[in-house]
């Protein structure tokens, strides 16, 4: 089979003669239909990742069909997506239903082989933990492959009382920002403002019907864009220290500010106004990964708005993985899905 392997920084290779993996007892073997490139994959290519043991098959966003099953839960031919962080099932966080925060997690593409391959073996604990989710036939494979990043967005929005949100601001219109904007609109929010520099990402946002404001214009215009009050919800989908320090300014009193985008360790410290947070009763929060329940919700949303999500995606064959990485880094693509 073919697979994309990470050997180290700037050392990712397409291998074409790998052996098809075995299906372990209690697990499944999946034949992939499509797999998506995540920003985490690109970071690992550029600077590495402490969670990676090399060599390792990369990728954790996919859709595929069960090729072989050694569990009664799934049958050959079942179409599936996944919440890829496999909880231990025993720690405090797993027991309260937050497997994404597991104290001893394993994730495909990191501790165990990833999804950028023609075949993906999944261990028994992935099945037992409910991490594998059945996927409807009506969702095109490239769209179904982004169920995982969309599930992280749904996790983010689940923290907010969305029925009370009138005005939302999404900063950064990469794939995650675009997915947030679509999901926020699906939640019924009428006034959604996005912020991005001119280019392909802005073009996609406008094609989807969103208002796009140049980042340099936000400071002087944010109140005018939000009924004179600031935004109920501010989503930070840009990995910028400056943006993350400024973002609470755009929230109205009692508003929520999501620190969705992570920063590199050398830039992780922020200078924030304690007085602004205190006197405006702001809620600043983080979000990491998703649970199987969030993936189920993502699949439902993908099915309902598949035409919108298709506009976010560029599809390439897996042989063009390097073009996919470079295209995202050069902002020529928002989200790339590879096909085996």
Write up what this structure looks like.
29% of the residues lie in helices and 26% in strands. 46% of the residues are buried. It contains 13 helices and 18 strands. It folds into 2 domains: 3-150 and 289-339, Quinone Oxidoreductase, Chain A, domain 1; 160-286, NAD(P)-binding Rossmann-like Domain (Rossmann fold, 3-Layer(aba) Sandwich). Helix 5 (147-158) crosses helix 11 (292-304). It is an alpha/beta fold and 340 residues long. The strands form 4 sheets. Strands 3, 5, 6, 9, 10, 17 and 18 form a 7-stranded mixed β-sheet that branches. Strands 13-12-11-14-15-16 form a 6-stranded parallel β-sheet.
Helix content: 25-40%
> What overall geometry do the principal axes of the alpha carbons give?
globular
Q: What is the radius of gyration computed over CA atoms, rounded to a whole number of angstroms? A: 20 Å
CATH class of the largest domain: Alpha Beta
Give the number of DSSP strands.
18
N- to C-terminal distance: 9 Å
Tally the helices: what do you get?
Answer: 13
The computed structural class is alpha/beta
For this structure, what is the CATH homologous superfamily of the largest domain?
Answer: Medium-chain alcohol dehydrogenases, catalytic domain
What's the CATH topology label of the largest domain?
Quinone Oxidoreductase, Chain A, domain 1
Per CATH, which architecture of the largest domain?
Alpha-Beta Complex
Q: Tell me about the biggest sheet?
A: 7 strands, mixed
Average of the residue pLDDT scores = 96
Total number of distinct structural domains: 2
The low-confidence parts are: none
């Amino acid at each position: 089979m073919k697979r994309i392997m990470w050997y180290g920084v700037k050392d990712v290779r397409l291998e074409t003669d790998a052996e098809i993996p075995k299906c372990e007892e209690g697990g499944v073997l999946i034949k992939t239909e499509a797999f998506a490139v995540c920003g985490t994959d690109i970071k690992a290519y550029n600077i590495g990742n402490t969670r990676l043991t090399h060599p390792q098959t990369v990728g954790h966003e996919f859709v595929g069909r069960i090729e072989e099953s050694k569990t009664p839960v799934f049958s050959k031919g079942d179409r599936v997506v996944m919440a890829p962080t496999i909880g231990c099932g025993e720690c405090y966080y797993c027991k309260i239903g937050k497997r994404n925060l597991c104290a001893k997690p394993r994730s495909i593409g990191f501790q165990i082989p990833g999804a950028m391959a023609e075949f993906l073996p999944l261990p028994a604990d992935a099945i037992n933990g409910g991490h594998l989710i059945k996927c409807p036939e009506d969702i095109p494979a490239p769209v179904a492959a982004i169920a995982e990043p969309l599930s992280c967005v749904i996790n983010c929005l689940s923290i907010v009382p969305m029925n009370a949100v009138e005005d939302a601001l999404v900063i950064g219109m990469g794939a995650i920002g675009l997915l947030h904007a679509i999901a926020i609109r699906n939640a019924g929010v009428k006034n959604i403002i996005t912020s991005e520099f001119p280019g392909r990402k802005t073009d996609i946002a406008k094609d989807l019907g969103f208002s796009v404001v140049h980042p340099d214009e936000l400071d002087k215009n944010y109140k005018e864009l939000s009924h004179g009050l600031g935004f109920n919800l501010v989503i930070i989908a840009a990995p910028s220290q400056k943006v993350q320090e400024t973002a609470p300014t755009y929230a109205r009193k009692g508003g929520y500010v999501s620190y969705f985008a992570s920063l590199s360790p050398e830039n992780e410290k922020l200078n924030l106004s304690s007085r602004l947070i205190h006197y405006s009763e702001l809620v600043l929060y983080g979000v990491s990964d998703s649970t199987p329940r969030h993936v189920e919700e993502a699949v439902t949303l993908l099915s309902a708005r598949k035409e919108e999500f298709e506009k976010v995606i560029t599809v390439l064959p897996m042989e063009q993985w390097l073009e996919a990485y470079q295209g995202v880094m050069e902002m020529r693509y928002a989200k790339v899905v590879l096909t085996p």
